[in-house]
Design a protein that fits this description.
- The structure is a homodimer.
- Chain A is α+β, with helices and mostly antiparallel strands.
- The first copy, chain A, folds into two domains: about 5-95, Pseudouridine synthase I, catalytic domain, N-terminal subdomain (Alpha-Beta Plaits, 2-Layer Sandwich); about 110-254, Pseudouridine synthase I, catalytic domain, C-terminal subdomain (Alpha-Beta Plaits, 2-Layer Sandwich), CATH 3.30.70.
- Helix content of chain A is about 20%, strand content about 30%.
- In chain A, strands 1, 2, 3, 4, 5, 6, 7, 8, 9 and 10 form a ten-stranded mixed beta sheet that branches.
- In chain A, helix 1 crosses helix 2 (about 75-85) and helix 3 packs across helix 4 (about 205-215).
- The longest helix of chain A is centred in the first third of the chain and has 13 residues, at about 30-40.
- The two termini of chain A are about 30 Å apart.
Chain lengths: ~250, ~250
């Protein structure tokens, strides 16, 4: 049967979902999207594949997925139709026609993640940003962040759970920015760790963030961090930072 | 038995509560606070009185209440103790010693409310701001807002439910501002209707907002709005705007 292929971008708030990928034990973003597509197409002969398996509680400002559908839909109808069927914390941003060859995982050139934390979480921001550990040396964290640049074996910055042929990844850019929030939910300074890389392991960004926090509060040294980046046997040097600070913000395809 | 009196300020996110005031049918802000105070004081011989009865779903950046407690507590212990016992969407901002004579309703000189709306609600902002009606004439709304200034009988801008001796209230300042959000939840322009008044009737701000929307989309004229402000028999000239756009932002005591 003839298939029609679409490349669709979406943003979502992760707090009420067990991550992107469909799984038996609870609601997922992909599950909600598939369900909406089934209603729209009046068929369950379809599939989706995301460019990133965001974890439970993690947000996306720009996730991309491929949809293989059994019928052709006008792009505006596809976007508006999905948005009318999806819950309010998932929004389709756009859709374009694609091909059978497009593979959102293999074809992504790089991805950018932002991790947000602040000294002052309020009732209005608590599920979108993380309370920072006390007494962080931000300049030291900036020095530490630079150690991640380039190609390394990130075996000490991953969580088991997904089989991967290699734990080597390349970090293209990393920056710890000081920003200011302005808006309904309050005005306050916050930090944003921006990381651009060719690929990421499970919980890699959150383990990088947790390690930089440990560095910033002097629980580990720059040498400890360098050793964890250089040598597989060192083990983890920081906690997994909480999911609500993490946003998938950009994906570049080849 | 000797009582100790405190004036306490709090901020809260309204979405999960049936408003400020204790009532039988569901969770309220006051109910949660009383419950926490009972634990802290190991007694239920206490009472609280808020300066404003915010409705179901309405937020506060600066609600104030009086607490009559059966024991004396250090101010920092009171604040930290309450925050450790309260849910994450209610936060105590500060406390000071008060007197038996203080009455947060009678002693408030003026209150300020902000109502927020925008052309572009996202999954990250949806419970903190309201999607604006299409095609609003903002300049016309600014003209309309000025009609509310001064002392008027707001009988056409109230919802029944609370007995009040008079429906006359004074609006001291009103302004429709264009602002920009910056932060984790996205960058987007939004509008803020700021209203400062000596007192407000039930749902008065939300009915003023709904009427200004109707003016902005040319469903009513400036004359219709003026008539509703001048004459009791005109009736409502707009819908009750949704609660998630409304914030109690400031209370000034005499």
């Amino acid at each position: 049967m003839k298939k029609f292929y679409y490349q669709i971008s979406t943003e979502y708030r992760g707090q009420n979902y067990f991550g992107w990928q469909i799984q038996p034990r609870g609601k997922t973003i992909q599950g909600e999207i598939n369900h909406a597509l089934e209603k729209l197409c009046k068929s369950d002969d379809l599939k989706t594949l995301g460019a990133s398996r965001t974890d439970s509680g993690v947000h996306a400002k720009a996730q991309v997925f491929k949809a293989d559908l059994p019928l052709e839909l006008p792009l505006k109808g596809l976007v508006d139709g999905l948005n009318s069927l999806l819950p309010e914390d998932i929004k389709i941003l756009g859709a374009k026609a694609s091909t059978a060859h497009f593979h959102p995982l293999r074809d992504s050139k790089w991805k950018r993640y932002n991790y947000l934390f602040t000294d002052k979480v309020s009732p209005f921001s608590r599920d979108l940003i993380v309370q920072a550990p006390a007494l962080l040396d931000i300049e030291l964290m900036r020095e530490g962040a630079k150690l991640f640049l380039g190609t390394h074996d990130f075996a000490n910055f991953r969580c088991m759970g997904t089989d991967v042929p290699t734990t080597t990844r390349e970090i293209l850019e990393i920056e710890l920015k000081e920003l200011n929030s302005q808006g309904p939910w309050g005005e306050f300074p916050y930090y944003c760790l921006e990381i651009k890389g060719t690929g990421f392991l499970k919980q890699m960004v959150r383990l990088m963030m947790g390690s930089l926090w440990n560095l910033g509060r002097k629980k580990i040294t720059l040498d400890d961090l360098q050793a964890a980046i250089d040598k597989k046997k060192v083990g983890k040097v920081g906690p997994v930072a909480p999911p609500q600070g993490l946003y998938l913000t950009e994906i570049q395809f080849a």
